Amino acid sequence: MNAKIGDRLAGKVAIVSGGAGGCGAAASELFAAQGAKVAIVDRDEEAALALASRLRDAGLDAIGIGADVSKRAHVQRGVAAAHAQYGDADILFNHAGTLIVKPFLDIEETEWDWLMGVNVKSMFLMTQAF
C-alpha cells in the first residue's frame, strides 16, 4: 500500500465491514489513501489488526476491530470501538459477505442461517449501529 494518494476523504471517518481481506481490504486501503480514518471491522481480527498496522506504517490512519457482524453485540462493540477512537463516522461500507460452495439441496439450515446473517442481517445491524 502506498502512502496517501489523495485527500478526497480528509477529515472523514470510514467503517468498513469485512474490511480485512480481498475487495474489503482494497476498499479499506483506498479510503485510507484518500485521507479517511478507517475502522476495519472483520471477523478475522488478526487480519484486521495486521492491515491496520500496515496502513499506519504507510503513514495512514486505521484501526482493526474484530467482530462477527452477523451478531448485534459484536456490531455494537465494533462500532463503539470505532467511535471511541475517531468519533462519529461519516462513511459506512457494508462489505462483509460470504458464500457456501456446495449444491443448494445439500446446504444445512444452520449454514443458510449463517449465510443470511453475514450477507443480509449484518447490513441491517451495521446500519442501525452506524
What's this model, at a glance?
This protein has helices spanning 22-33, 45-57, 72-86, 109-129, and strands spanning 13-17, 37-42, 62-66, 91-94.
Question: Can you give a write-up of this model?
Answer:
- This protein has 130 residues and is α/β, with parallel strands linked by helices.
- It has one domain (13-129): Rossmann fold (3-Layer(aba) Sandwich).
- It has helices at 22-33, 45-57, 72-86, 109-129, and strands at 13-17, 37-42, 62-66, 91-94.
- Strands 3-2-1-4 form a four-stranded parallel β-sheet, sandwiched between helices.
- Strand 1 (13-17), helix 1 (22-33) and strand 2 form a beta-alpha-beta unit.
- Helix 3 runs parallel beside helix 4.
- The longest helix is centred in the C-terminal third of the chain and has 21 residues, at 109-129.
Count of domain modules: 1
CATH-assigned fold name = Rossmann fold
CATH superfamily: NAD(P)-binding Rossmann-like Domain
Helix-strand category: alpha/beta
Secondary-structure element pattern, one letter each? EHEHEHEH
**End-to-end CA span:** 27 Å
Shape: globular
CATH architecture classification: 3-Layer(aba) Sandwich
Strand order of the largest sheet: 3-2-1-4
Give the biggest sheet. Answer: 4 strands, parallel
The overall average pLDDT, rounded, is 96
Strand content: 15-25%
- Total number of β-strand segments? 4
Report the helical percentage. Answer: 40-55%
Could you list the spans in which at least 5 consecutive residues all have pLDDT below 50? none
Radius of gyration: 15 Å
At the first level of CATH, the class is Alpha Beta
